[in-house]
Amino acid sequence: MPRRRPRALRAEQPVSRVWGPTPPFRIHGLSTRASLAVHRVEYLSGSFSIHPGATDCALRRYREFLHPPGRRPLYPQESSCSCTWCSFDDVRHARDVLEEVLERLPEPARAELGRLVKPLDVVFSRRTLPDPFAHRRQWRTQFWWYRRLAERSEWG
Ligand SMILES: [Zn+2]
After folding, report:
1. Residue 128 structural domain
2. Would residue 141 count as lying in a domain?
3. 151 C-alpha vs ligand 1 centroid, how far in Å?
4. Cα 50 to middle of ligand 1, angstroms
5. Is residue 125 part of a domain?
6. pLDDT tens digit string along 53-63?
7. Which end of the chain is more exposed for a tag (fewer CB within 10 A), N or C?
8. Residue 7 to residue 77: CA distance in whole angstroms
9. How many CB atoms neighbour CB 16 within 10 A?
């Protein structure tokens, strides 16, 4: 029978009342400490869109949207279903999630996540076009990523 190392086993399976039984995973590009802070925000937020894993999902979706090479403009597209997962089809929802998490994160985790989001924002604003009629719409136009031309401009 192999020798058991209880301390090592415990270290591999952290159980926390705050984070729940699932060991929090490290978000690509974030320190372990910041990943834990994000995980904590996701568990405690009580927000409809901020579920565990939402931040990682949002970052992946944001990068994926900006991925096509070239200078061709990109158009965000409304998601056909408003459930927690399909909402991410609309890249602007992914950006909403990141904004909400950023607002809730304590420093320095906020700054760390901000450093991942900012260069994506730069590409997003470069690859999308301004919506000249954004001021006529009511919905969420306080966020600059909703003031860009979308595939369905009547939306909102
Ligand atoms: Zn759905």
Report:
1. 17-146
2. yes
3. 19
4. 16
5. yes
6. 999 999 999 99
7. N
8. 49
9. 14
State which of 12-21, 23-32, 104-113 shows the largest mean pLDDT: 104-113
Element (H, E) at 103: helix 91-104
101 C-alpha to center of ligand 1: Å? 22
CA distance 131 to 113: 27
Which two tokens mark 80?
């056909």
Is 126 domain-assigned?
Answer: yes
Q: Which of 40-49, 63-72, 77-86, 109-118 has the highest mean pLDDT?
A: 109-118
Calculate the CA dihedral of residues 82, 54, 144, 46 and round it to 10 degrees: 80
Asked whether the beta carbons of 75 and 150 are under 8 A apart, the reply is yes
CA distances from 85 to 14, 44, 67, 134, 142 (A): 27, 19, 20, 26, 24
Please report whether residue 65 resides in a domain: yes
Predicted local distance difference test score (pLDDT) of residue 31: 93
Ligand 1 centre to CA of 153 (Å) is: 22
Q: What is the mean pLDDT of residues 121-135?
A: 92
Total number of domains in the chain = 1
Distance 20 CA to ligand 1 centre (A): 25
Spacing, Cα 88 to ligand 1 middle (Å): 9
The mean pLDDT value of the chain amounts to 84
